[in-house]
Amino acid sequence: MRTESEQTIHLKDYAPTPYRIVSVDLDFRILEENTRVRAQLTIEPREGTAPGTALVLDGDELKLDSIAIDGAPLALAAYLADADSLTVVEPPLRRFVLDTEVTLLPASNTKLMGLYRSSGTWCTQCEPEGFRRITYYLDRPDILAPFTVRMTAPVALAPVLLANGNPIERGDAGDGMHYAVWHDPFPKPAYLFALVAGDLGSINDHFTTMSGRRIDLAIYATHGKEGECHYAMDSLKRSMAWDERRFGREYDLDIFNIVAVSDFNFGAMENKGLNIFNDRLVFAKPETATDANYHGIERVIAHEYFHNWTGNRITCRDWFQLCLKEGLTVYRDQEFTSDERSRPVQRIHDVQNLRTSQFPEDGGPLAHPPRPDQYREINNFYTTTIYEKGAEIVRMLATLLGEAGFRKGMDLYFERHDGEATTIEAFIKVFEDASGTDLSQFITWYLQAGTPQVSVSDHYDEASQTYSLTLTQKVDPTPGQTEKQPLLIPVRFGLIGPNGSPMGWSGVTGGSVRDDLIILDAPSMTLTFSGVANRPVPSLFREFSAPVKVSTGLTQDDLLFLARHDSDPFNRWDALQTVSTTLIAEAAQGRRWAEADADALRQALIDTLNNPDLDHAFKALAIAMPSEPVVGRHIGKDVDPDAVARARHDLLTTLIGPIVEQLERHYDALTVPEPYSPDAAQAGRRSLRNGLLSLLTAGSDRGAALAAAQYSAAANMTDRYAAMAISAHYWTDQAQALLGDFRTSFAGDPLVFDKWLTASAQAPDDGIIERMRAILAAPDFPRTNPNRLRSLLGAFVMSNPVQFARKDGAGFRFVTEAVAEIDKVNPQVASRILTGFRILPTLEAARRDTGKAALEALKSQHQLSRNVGEILDRILAG
Ligand code: TRP
Ligand code: ZN
User: Fold this and answer.
1) Checking CA distances to 586, which of 92, 208, 509, 537 falls within 20 to 30 Å?
2) Burial environment of residue 675 by CB neighbours within 10 A (0 to 12, 13 to 18, 19 or more)
3) Can you spell out the DSSP letters for 285-349?
4) pTM exceeds cut of 0.90
5) Domains of the chain (ranges plus CATH)?
6) What is the pLDDT of residues 71-100, one digit of tens each?
7) Is ligand 1 within 6 A of the CB of residue 650?
């Protein structure tokens, strides 16, 4: 069957609109049954627009009730209206007011784009193309206008009426109705529009800016949930202070509101002055939220707040430039969390995330550049490449220019482009101008897909006391991009001497080296360091200075040496991960490790645990074994997930066997004193203790009982959830009982139900598909809620390769059948789940074929949305 539309949009076709929108007046009449929207758009032709040029506005599932220009209704022949567009055939060649009315049905808007209802609350989501589901408009980010919004609604259903900007008027409207008027003076694109109407409670606070202005802050949520919003409020105030300190950015409106809603397609949305959040990223109390949830709340609150400058004050010219706001804002939220918590630990988390989600995207059929040049459905491009690789690119800029140089560039960016909708080129230009550096090669990072692979070889010549390092880069072809250019890759590095201390050199030839930075800008480069007294061990890509895959040829001894001696914590962690990943990957391919190698790794883990200079959070990351998907990716092709799981289990048993008692002693010693606090120190202690529990459960027969005991004794959700999830993942004898207990104990809390769904999706046993089918078929399963669907299906496709990629194809078919159903309700959620099939090319042939067959069946048997159709076609073609 054909999909909705196969039309492709190209960057090269960008052109400004012939008309611009000068200002926007919206009037919403919100009723239980429907919502009437009247839009008065002040419009004028741009200079050079020829007489008779039609004005074409975007729509999506709209029905026009009335239309007038400057107060005069239009004759039938003067316009053309359908669900997707409104054309005014021959608008006046001067400024005029276009007046339209439409009627919306928010309660049946299950796509959650445009105006919809979530648990009774009216709310909006307009990025990227949701505003056209509210009214006919030039719905593109280069159309900026000030908005005035009037809302009228029943007092009983919606005592709270919010929109962007500042409240300017409110009052009684008779018949049990009331109204409010909001004005946002900052010209903005329509994707930043928002309104909320509902019966909500709030917590209120304020922030005093660096210039002494008082900003009123509020977080709105369903009544009864106000007490769970305090961590979010605290995070907001810290974010505001940080952006002033670190980037000199002050908030601009007099009020800042956040609203938590239960049905939401993403994490959160940066609407001007009115951020709307998925409630899972707002609500937190120790009994129901984990340390990871607190961490996520802090990060996303910061992310949306930081968008006020990087996204709102300066926005994107078109959606191809999405990375301009997202990559930069992720970089900013990562830096915030690093400053607020531990920098090395945050860096490891971010790189782990990049490697488990972005690298697979970049190496598979869905690979695309951080700035794509074409798309069918823009919603499919809110990807980890745009966000996380985008952040890595900004981080490389900061590395290349240094902290002061980077700040100078950012200052110039804000100065030069405030109030504009701009491009990646303009962003790079400010750094060139501020620093006098030529970045023409650097911009290739934005234009080229694929993870570069850097190979390193070295040679020490004792006679001449020289040490040479050869670095070679290459990028494999990606869909639509076969030729690849060499990139400018910053390699932060150090040389380590035999006693573990840093080694210097007297000179270097063959390339550019600045202090601890090698600039690799050619396909291959050999650096020769002179005056090197002994053979060093090189520590390369410190702090993960570039988003590349590295093969160093270092031996396991060298890597364990780095794990012990490197002054860079990231590389200490990475060395251990490389050793364990390599051992598992080799064993999964039939080449079992030598006992001596396992012994050495075990000793390194023990030394790490016993090292008093390392903090708990770091140790937790260092002792963790790579996940099955990470190992599968490392192998790269013809992967047999069962063999990976077996090899991983084998290595764990080998490592843990001789040290069970030692690990258990550490585990016992690490109990955390009550009361619970989400701070980094306590959270780090819990994560190490739960990391030990995971090792013990995976690699010994002691762990299962410990996990069950921890589950029962847990005084907070972090410990309870960890015990349950570990039990489910290793499918211990107690797993089903724990899952059962968890489900009944927290039956009334949807966000805790999500945790149960995610843990349930981890089970490796063959019964899982039937259990998941039953979960989805239960009459009370909330099948329109994205969080519920993603918690089960998203977790399954991304982290349970053994069952998802089952040989008999049952895992694939279960997912494609679910996707077909979800697609009818919410295409964005459906296509997101379908991206899990991007692992197909890495699998062994038989599994690859059953996976393809499931996709072909999905394509031939269903009428699919553009979202799902595009992902499906790209995976099948790749
Ligand atoms: N701009 C939002 C962010 O990065 C994310 C976003 C994009 C979004 N599209 C969305 C949120 C659709 C909700 C729904 O924070
Ligand atoms: Zn964002």
Assistant:
1) 537
2) exposed
3) -TTT--HHHHHHHHHHHHHHHHTTTBTTTBEESSGGGHHHHHHHHHHHHHHHHHHHS-HHHHHHH
4) yes
5) 9-199 (2.60.40.1730), 746-878 (1.25.50.10)
6) 999 999 999 999 999 999 999 999 999 999
7) no
